[in-house]
Amino acid sequence: MLEEIDKNYKKSSLEQKYNIIKGNRYIMEEAIVPISKALKLPMDEVVDVFVKTCDGVSLYESHAYVEQAKMGCLGRKVDIDLGLCWIADFFGLISKKDADLIRRKVVEDTIIKKRPYKEALEEGRLLTVKILKGEE
Amino acid sequence: MLEEIDKNYKKSSLEQKYNIIKGNRYIMEEAIVPISKALKLPMDEVVDVFVKTCDGVSLYESHAYVEQAKMGCLGRKVDIDLGLCWIADFFGLISKKDADLIRRKVVEDTIIKKRPYKEALEEGRLLTVKILKGEE
After folding, report:
1. Dmax over Cα atoms in chain A, in whole Å?
2. Under CATH, what is the fold of the domain B67-132?
């Protein structure tokens, strides 16, 4: 009897979590879809992993995580696109502080100010060149 | 007189550094060219920055830096291509330790074992999916 209740409870908790995810367009579009694309995994399977790994509370909070994740991942892209990992981290041609500033500016312009990434990146590039030449 | 010697010394030191870089095909191909492409800056100007920023010793040592830089930058690319920044850093669907392992494997397969990046990435993807599903 207790086992049955437990089983039912677990089932309804899982269902609840499915519904939280499936009903949240933001989480679907901004987390499930990109992960599904990166891993070539059907969206349902990605939802499965989320349901099994995260508790209900962290799912409700995932809006905040998504913003953080987007900014963190875009920062890595800026590093590559502007070669910051070369010129700051390894060759020390500009300081890490300057690299952080450039990276943060491009990321914030794109995600918070909603400017096209290409435009924000171009500005970041000009700033990098200026710093590199000692003009800033 | 002393000023003149000093000026000549500086000039010949700069020239020496130019020659170290220009004469080193490895540094040219693996550092100057990618930075020049990322920043849309003529190669000569990138060499200028190196000459002004680095001392002679660090130029001689730059072979080691280039290897480190390549591995570090490729790691960032793996993070993006496999969505590791999402699933490990922000949603905690796999552990950071597992993410490090996957990233390192793809990077080492590509740079040290000289396997095509696409192949190494595909193996990394399969490993990620296995870990994500709790099969590994």
Report:
1. 76
2. Hypothetical protein MTH393 (1.10.3070)
CA B99/CA B94 separation, integer angstroms: 7
pLDDT tens, B84-101?
988 887 788 899 999 999
Whether ipTM > 0.85 holds is: no
In the numeric block, the tokens 């993807």 are attached to B125
Which of B17, B39, B131 is the best mutation test for A, with the most CBs of A within 10 A?
B39
Q: Do B39 and A125 touch (CB under 8 A)?
A: yes
Numbers of helices and strands, H then E, in chain A:
9, 0
Contacts by B19-22, CB closer than 8 A, 24 or more apart: B20/B56, B20/B59, B20/B60, B21/B47, B21/B50, B21/B51, B21/B59, B22/B47
Distance from CA of B29 to the nearest CA of A (A): 13
Residues B72, A87: C-beta atoms closer than 8 Å: no
Contacts of A20 (CB under 8 A, 6+ apart): A56, A59, A60
**For chain B, domain boundaries:** 2-60, 67-132
Interchain CB distance below 8 Å, B53 and A83? no
Report CA Rg, chain A: 21
Q: Do B82 and A53 touch (CB under 8 A)?
A: no
Q: What are the tens digits of pLDDT across the range B32-67?
A: 998 999 999 999 999 988 888 877 667 777 777 788
Nearest partner of B38 among A96, A134, A104, A132, judged by Cα: A132
